[in-house]
Amino acid sequence: MRPKILLRIASVIMLLHMLGHTMGALTWKDAPNAAVKQVIDGMLGNRFDFMGRSVSIGDFFAGYGYGMIGVLLLVSILLWLLSAEHNRRFILALGLFLLFLSIIEFIYFFPFAAAFSLLAGVTTLLAMRERSSSV
């Protein structure tokens, strides 16, 4: 398969990952049961001073989630742009980053999210390999 197509497939996969992550980031406070509500309330209700600000673990959790939306969108855009202009080293770095992200998501989050990053990472590295063999 052509590297351009592989990178665009990886881009769409990461865009879908970003959309799913956005839904999760915007609804994480919606507790499905009383036990989860108690944890969420604890994350939001216990505030402490940090670098001149009163914050909670829930603030950090939300902030990391919103930041990750931007990271996933950026990765999707970069993959699409790289499909038009190949930079082997950058494609390699992005592919390895996606494999790293999939490991983190598998360990700390859940397999469904990890599968998106893993699939995009493998597809990206395949595009790099195809590009190398066609040159």
Could you provide a short overview of the structure?
This protein is mainly α. Helices cover 81% and strands 6% of the residues.
If you had to describe this structure to a student in words, what would you say it looks like?
The protein has 135 residues and is mainly alpha-helical. It contains five helices and two strands; from the N terminus they run ααββααα. It has helices at residues 3-27, 34-45, 57-84, 88-108, 111-134, and strands spanning 47-50, 53-56. A two-stranded antiparallel ribbon has the order 1-2. Strand 1 (47-50) and strand 2 (53-56) form a beta hairpin. Helix 1 runs antiparallel to helix 3 and helix 1 (3-27) runs antiparallel to helix 5 (111-134). The mean pLDDT is 94.
Radius of gyration: 18 Å
Biggest beta-sheet profile: 2 strands, antiparallel
What helical percentage do the residues reach?
over 70%
| Sheet with most strands: strand arrangement | 1-2
Uncertain segments: none
Looking at the structure, what is the overall shape? Answer: elongated
Oligomeric state of this protein: single chain
Question: First CA to last CA: what distance?
Answer: 14 Å
